[in-house]
Amino acid sequence: MKTRHWWLAVAPLVCSVGVVIADNGSAQVDPERLAALRAMTGQARALAERMPEPARRALSSGAMNLMNLAERWPHLEQSLTLRRPAGSRAAPALPREEKASGPPAIPSPGTQVNDPGTDGDFSRLSGFTQSETSTAWCDKNVVVGWNDSGSLFESGGVSFNGYGRSTNSGRIFQDLGFLPTSSGVLAGDPVIGCADTNTFFYASLFETVTTSDISVSKSTNGGFSWGNPVSAVSKSGSTHFLDKPWMAVDPTNTTRIFVTYTDVDDSGTVCGAGNARMAIEEVNSPDGGATWSSPVVVREVCIDRTTGNGAIVQGSQVA
Predict the structure, then answer these.
(1) Is omega for the bond preceding 109 within 30 degrees of 0, making it cis?
(2) Could you give the CA distance from residue 23 to residue 43 in angstroms, rounded to a whole number?
(3) What is the DSSP letter of 159?
(4) I need a labelling partner for 4 at 20 to 30 A (CA). Which of 43, 78, 138, 237 fits?
(5) Per-residue confidence at 124, pLDDT binned at 50, 70, 90?
(6) What sign for the dihedral angle of Cα 185, 190, 195, 196?
C-alpha cells in the first residue's frame, strides 16, 4: 500500500504594514454592506487590542491592513461610499493564444503583472498597497495573486485580493481586477495553487460579521474568472483570528488540497483565562475544495496576555 505524506515548515514571520486611505470616486455602496464592514472591522480591532504584543507584531500584512481599516474606519466609511467611475477599468477579455517557441524570454528585471494605471483612481495612496504575492504555474497558464488596496475600493469593500494571469508562460500578464465574493470580505494573504492548466485555487483570509475564516476560491478556466470562496475553516470572530494561510495541491491526486494557517485564539479554552494561544493548524479537502476536514493542530503555544511571555508560532508552508 502506498502512503502519501505531507510536510510542514513553521517559521517566524516579519511583515510590513500597509495603510489604506481613499479620497474620491463616485457611486454609492449599499448601506447594508457598510454596516457589515463596520461590524467586522470593529470585531477585528477589539480582538487585536486583547492580543499579547508579540502576537500582534507577528500578524501578516493582510491582517495588519484589516486592523488599519478598523483604526481608520470613520474616514474610510466615507471613502467606501465612493466607488470607481464607470469605465475606468476596461472589461477584461480572454487573451489571444500565442504560439510558444522555446523557453519564455523574460526581460530583466521581470514582466509587469499588475496594472498601475488605476492606482490613483481614488487617491494617491489607495492603490499603492500591493504585497504578499503568490504564483502558480500549470502548462502555459500562470496566475499571480496579491494584496491590493485599490481592489478594496473598486469592489465596494468586499475584496482586498487582486490577481493577474498569463496564458503564454509568463511573457505577458493581464491584471484582471479583484477576486469576487457574494458575502463576507476577502481580506488578503493570497496563496495560489493549480491542479492542471484549467483548474486553479486561491486561498485567502475571509471575514464575516461573526466568523474568521480561511477560504479557497476555485477557477475552472485557467484563472480567468473565479467562483465564490468556500470556507476551508471557520471559527468565532469574537475569540479567534485566522491568519497567514498556505496551500498545497497533491500532485499525485490533484483533488486533494492541504491548507495550513495560524489561529490566534483568545477563547481561553486551551491556555486558560488571561492567556492567548497561537497554533499552526491544518485542514484538507478530498474533493477539489468542495468540502473540508476538521482542523488538526500541528503545534500550539500559550502567551501571557499581560506580560507577553511565551513563544509564538507564525508562518507555515505545507508541501
Answers:
(1) yes
(2) 25
(3) B
(4) 138
(5) low
(6) positive
